[in-house]
Amino acid sequence: MSKQMDSAERSRVAIKKWCEWLEHNRGRSPRTVTKYHQYLTMLSQWLESEQECTLLDATLEHLELYVGFEAHRRGIRPRSRQPLVSCLRGFYRWAAGQARAIESNPAAALPQPSIGKSLPRVMSLHSAEKIIMAPDLGTFVGIRDAAIMSVMLGCGMRVGGVSGINEWDLEWARPKDEALEELTIRTREKGGRERLVPAPHETALLLRAYLGHPDLAAIDRSIPNGNAVLFVAMTTGGSCKDHEHYGERRRLSPRAIHRIVQKYAKQVGVPMEQAHPHAMRHLYGTELEEGDTGLFQIQALMGHANTNSTKQYVHLASRKLREAALKNSPITKIYTPVSDLAKAMRDKEHT
């Protein structure tokens, strides 16, 4: 029994050390580290209670049973099991390598669950136009919301990146002989990666209107380094008291931004499957592809770690594909019973 307890304690220490290694040596975000800690703790508890072994004694058969049957029993879908499997692979690779806590890696051959590849939901241009026109620009909240959505539509940022923008992340410039300012926005998104995104003039104008509003000047947005939170919350949340509602605590959260998008979507009748910030990001990627933007340019603009994520927008570029099909399909180059009608319809479309 004491040996079992010793092994269980060693497993808990290993989890703690690996999570610290992930954060400090690999630069993983605190959110990812917390999630991985939870995964390993749950697995450890299941192994000890159901399999009478510990995390450091687990075999490939134990791990396959947990990520397969047990995960299914708990209602975890295959797509949601992918980060779990990645966590286990990483932990056991570290335990068998750097930590030398086990002799061999039981997760080396642990397969990822097989899932079908699904294309992301995309907001249509018509829906984007309706939703960006919905806020009341006669109010401070309306201007703030329009500015937020203009950043997502105009720059394709993830919602976490939009939430995390500070005022110093807005880089304004006026090129010689140009009437309009140019704006570039610095954002930090997945894994703390930083990138610069050029903003359209529409986004720049709405941000100027927001920054120049007198209601914003009355809000304390300052943070310790002298910078200022960009997008502010108007109500306190959770345990935050009114007198504490300043600085970092004034920052609008990703969840709040999601609710803002949903509010205007309902207001103007945009379908709920399009009513989320990521649908705006996918529209941005799709329009880049529609406009013949190069693959590596799209990758840089959207902050993808590799081109595999970027390639999905090739599949989403329906207008481009349709134009190519109409121009090059063999049936358009021969005479058919409806060729005259089809030509008349095309001529009418272009008049």
What does this structure look like?
The protein is mostly helical and 351 residues long. The chain has two domains: 2-96, no CATH class; 125-315, hpI Integrase, Chain A, CATH 1.10.443.10. It has helices at residues 2-25, 30-51, 60-73, 78-96, 125-132, 140-155, 159-163, 201-211, 214-217, 254-268, 277-290, 295-302, 307-310, 312-316, 318-328, 339-349; strands at residues 170-173, 182-188, 194-199. The protein has a three-stranded antiparallel β-sheet. Helix 1 (2-25) packs antiparallel against helix 2 (30-51), helix 5 (125-132) packs across helix 10 (254-268) and helix 6 (140-155) packs antiparallel against helix 8. Residues 1-5 have low confidence and may be disordered.
In short:
The protein has 351 residues and is mainly alpha-helical.
Strand and helix layout:
Elements (H helix, E strand, L loop, with lengths): L1 H24 L4 H22 L8 H14 L4 H19 L28 H8 L7 H16 L3 H5 L6 E4 L8 E7 L5 E6 L1 H11 L2 H4 L36 H15 L8 H14 L4 H8 L4 H4 L1 H5 L1 H11 L10 H11 L2
Antiparallel strand pairs: 1-2, 2-3
Helix pairs in contact: 1-2, 3-4, 5-10, 6-8, 6-11
